[in-house]
Design brief:
This protein is an alpha+beta fold. It contains 12 helices and 14 strands.
């Protein structure tokens, strides 16, 4: 293998995740995990991610087809959608913090109700059990019944059966008992690390460590095993060192391969697209800092409420804020450097905006 350069890693990072569009299930299996986010600006992050990787994908297709596919809403390094077969790596999940006796009693009542009546909407549970309201993680308040449903889902006793206008509808589920031997736990931990590496490679060493720490969300009961598996992974993964930074990727892939040649399309990416999710890697590969500012006060925003990174060839060169109003698609752009002036870029950008409009039009 020739000496790996940063140019190799850029082209490799783009090519390996922006694979030729395929079916929805195959795309999710190829990605391994699709991060979810409720904000629609102009569409949810999961839809914006999948539109580049699924043939003729339209906003809302994932939600409308969810019940027909072997996929689940669940946690990995964050919350999203993943192939059903990955659940066995994390379930039965043991939460880091045990419920107190009162919460356990209430959760048991909720679980019994869902088993008897499910699939159920959180509103239905709240009307029947009336647990009141609790503070949420953002300083506001929400229904205690919804919090209990979410907790039961996290612990593997419920699954998301479908969505009702974006709200999770739950039904009871029972995961098969896991082999709890030391060897089996180590094997699951290694498989989880392989999953995140194949999704996010090439990874700077610091990002690899961070991702393994985030696996404590999806598999908190395997934290010791994932830390041990990380040490082995560093030895087994392919790697190189560029400008003082060590990079890792799967040993069976070659970043210098000519097959990673970039195409000529412009793409507007979701803020959580695997190509741009890792902000450390983003800055190393493209030389500027991108920020997600939806929760930043408007006067302090540099990029906008929901800036979509703008990819051209193998470089992220700027960002766009896109709205879809009655008058049609509206987009404003910013650039990390000089705006490209050639006709090829303008034509490719127009094509991408047309694809975005078709995607947002739905079925």
């Amino acid at each position: 293998m020739p000496e790996i350069t940063l140019d190799h890693l850029r082209r490799y990072a783009v090519a390996r995740t922006l694979f030729p569009p395929t079916t929805l299930l195959r795309a999710i299996r190829r990605l391994g995990f699709v991060q979810a986010d409720p904000i629609r600006a102009p569409a949810r992050a999961q839809d914006l991610t999948l539109r580049h990787r699924v043939k003729d994908y339209r906003a809302g297709d994932l939600e409308s087809r969810y019940t027909k596919l072997a996929i689940e809403e669940d946690c990995l390094v964050n919350y999203g959608f993943l192939p059903r077969e990955h659940l066995a790596l994390m379930h039965p999940r043991q939460a880091r913090r045990a419920w107190d006796a009162d919460t356990q009693r209430k959760a048991a009542d909720v679980l019994a109700y869902v088993r008897e009546h499910g699939p159920v909407h959180p509103r239905q549970v709240d009307l029947h059990l009336a647990h009141g309201r609790v503070k949420n993680n953002w300083g506001g308040s929400g229904n205690a019944s919804t919090r209990l449903l979410d907790g039961l889902h996290y612990r593997g006793m419920l699954r998301v059966a479908q969505r009702d206008n974006g709200t999770r509808v739950y039904e009871a589920v029972a995961h098969a008992p896991a082999d709890d031997s030391a060897a089996a736990r180590a094997q699951r931990a290694a498989a989880l690390i392989e999953l995140v590496v194949r999704k996010y490679a090439p990874l700077p060493a610091t990002s690899l460590t961070y991702l393994v720490r985030l696996l404590g969300y999806g598999a908190p009961h395997l934290s010791a095993q994932t830390q041990a598996a990380l040490k082995l992974a560093r030895e087994e993964l392919a790697s190189c060192r560029i400008d003082g930074c060590t990079w890792y990727w799967p040993a069976d892939e070659n970043p210098a391969s000519r097959k990673h040649a970039p195409d000529t399309e412009v793409r507007l990416l979701a803020p959580f697209d695997p190509l741009v999710w890792d902000r450390r890697r983003f800055e190393l590969l493209w030389g500027w800092t991108y920020k997600f500012e939806a929760y930043t006060p408007a006067p302090r925003r540099q990029f906008g409420y929901y800036a979509l990174p703008l990819l051209w060839h193998e470089r992220v060169i700027g960002w766009a804020n896109v709205t879809n109003a009655a008058g049609g698609l509206q987009a404003s752009f910013g650039y990390a450097g000089a705006k490209p002036r050639d006709a090829a870029f303008r034509a490719a950008l127009d094509d991408e905006l047309q694809r975005m409009a078709q995607f947002l039009a739905g079925r």
